Amino acid sequence: MIKAEHLYYAYVIGKKGKQTEVPVLKDVNFEIEKGEVVAVAGKSGSGKSTLLNLLSGYIPPDSGIITINDRNVTDLTEKEWAAFRLEHFGFVFQNYELIPSLTAFENVELPLILKGIDMDQRKTRVAALLHETGLENHSTHYPNELSGGQQQRVSIARALINEPEIIFADEPTGSLDSETEQEILKLIDSLNKEKNITFVIITHDEEVASRADRKLTLFDGVLKQGRGTYSEAQ
Ligand SMILES: Nc1ncnc2c1ncn2[C@@H]1O[C@H](COP(=O)(O)OP(=O)(O)OP(=O)(O)O)[C@@H](O)[C@H]1O
């Protein structure tokens, strides 16, 4: 479902004429099957977010190939990537990234408006997802009127609204207490089991990584499978 072959990416830093390349991903290779939950671990600065940005088309690799659903997506244009993301991906972030001036309902509805779905369908689908994520009584609340766990549920409902095959989650429980973390992990678990959604989760958290089917650890620009203790992966 997601395949990365020999991914290389370097940031170019410094002023013009004095620029240097800082390689972050040197030779990253992996394959993720449909329906897997994969944790991506690695020390701070090891390139986890960079990898996520490559996989989701926000930055092109300097070299290497990314294949998603048997399609080589490495050279998609920005416009093609935008359509591809809307069709196949959902995103969940540590800080929820909700729009503060929109209610929970409106935040979840927004991707459907972008896709041109008519109002009746939008209302039905958003209501169903808010129910599924346990938010039916909070649909008119604004983000600042919701707890962290509730905001993360809204962001998960928003990620689900276009029925994506893959959800990329960047530290999805990083801002939550341990009890709320458990609730969110249970929700991810049930979405994976019931809808067969593939999850790629960046995490520093051992609990999150241990509940994944597999853990990939970024170390020195390459990805090691099942290697390294949790402390190495911090
Ligand atoms: N825009 C940028 N320009 C230059 N260097 C960058 C840029 N973004 C990230 N880096 C560098 O690339 C490396 C990898 O960064 P990245 O954010 O991918 O790591 P990470 O594993 O996600 O870290 P963290 O766990 O702290 O979020 C770091 O050394 C960082 O300083």
Automatic annotation (TrEMBL):
ABC transporter domain ranges (all copies): 2-233
GO molecular function terms noted in the UniProt entry: ATP binding; ATP hydrolysis activity; transmembrane transporter activity
Q: Which SUPFAM superfamilies match?
A: P-loop containing nucleoside triphosphate hydrolases (SSF52540)
**GO-annotated cellular components:** membrane protein complex
Record the organism: Alteribacter lacisalsi
Report if keyword Transcription is assigned: no
Q: What does the similarity note say?
A: Belongs to the ABC transporter superfamily.
Which protein, by its recorded name, is this?
ABC transporter ATP-binding protein
Sorted UniProt keywords: ATP-binding, Nucleotide-binding, Transport
Q: Does the keyword Transport apply?
A: yes
* CDD domains reported in the protein's UniProt record: ABC_MJ0796_LolCDE_FtsE
PANTHER family in the record: CELL DIVISION ATP-BINDING PROTEIN FTSE (PTHR42798:SF6), LIPOPROTEIN-RELEASING SYSTEM ATP-BINDING PROTEIN LOLD (PTHR42798)
